[in-house]
Specification:
Layout (H helix, E strand, L loop, with lengths): L1 E7 L4 H8 L5 E8 L6 H7 L3 E4 L8 H13 L5 E4 L8 H6 L4 E5 L11 H8 L3 E8 L9 E8 L6 H24 L3 E3 L5 E3 L11 E2 L6
Parallel strand pairs: 1-2, 1-4, 2-3, 4-5
Antiparallel strand pairs: 5-6, 6-7, 7-10, 8-9
This protein binds glycinamide ribonucleotide.
Amino acid sequence: MKSIVILISGRGSNMEAIVGANIPGARIAAVISNRAEAAGLAFAAARGIYTGVVAHADYSERGHFDAALRAAIDVHAPDLLVLAGFMRVLGEDFVRHYAGRLLNIHPSLLPAFPGLHTHARALAAGVRVHGATVHFVTPELDGGPIVIQTVVPVLPGDNEDSLAARVLAEEHRIYPQAVRWFVEGRLAADGDGRIAVGGARTAAALPRHYPPLDED
Ligand code: GAR
C-alpha cells in the first residue's frame, strides 16, 4: 500500500478528485494545508483522513516553514507527496528531499505560463488552446518533468472564470490518472529526464490528454 500525503491551500477540488478516485493500492495518509481556513480540510476530515495545518504566516523565514512542513509530512512516511492547489513556493532543500515522489498540477500547458494568473495570461495572449499539466516538481518553478497534459479550447467570449472552469474539470481527470500511474509504478524517467508512462496506450487521433487516460 502506497502512502500519499496531499498539500492544499484552499478549495481542494483536485484533492477531492484524487480521494474520490479510490486508487487501488493507495492510502491518503494526510491532507495538510498552509492555511487553517482552507475549505478542503473539512472534506478530508469528513472522510476520516488525518488533516493538519502548518501555517506559513507563523514563520518569519521560509526555511523554517519548509522544515516544519517537512516534519508534519514525514510522520506519515509518504511514498508520494501531491501538491493540489498548494500556493507556496517550496525551497530547494524541501524539493530535493522529495525528489521523484513530488507531483504538482499547474493550470497551463507548461512551459507556457508558469507562475500565477495563468488563465488571464492565456486570454491576453490570444492562445487558441489552453490546459493543465501534471509534472514532477524540481527546484525550477513549474519546470519539472511532465507526466500528463490536457488541452481545452479557448472559446469566443471566454473570461477568466469560464476558462478556469473548463480547465479545472479536466484537471480533475488528469490528476487522479497521474497518481494512479505513479502508484502502479508506471512512471519512469528516461535518460533525458523526460517521463515515460509504461503501458500507456497510443491513440490514432490526437487525444485530449496525452498520454491518453486509461478510460479514453
Ligand atoms: C487548480 O486550478 C490548480 O491547478 C491551481 O490552483 C487550483 C487549485 O484548485 N494550482 C496552481 O496554480 C499552482 N501554481 P483546487 O484547490 O480546487 O484543487
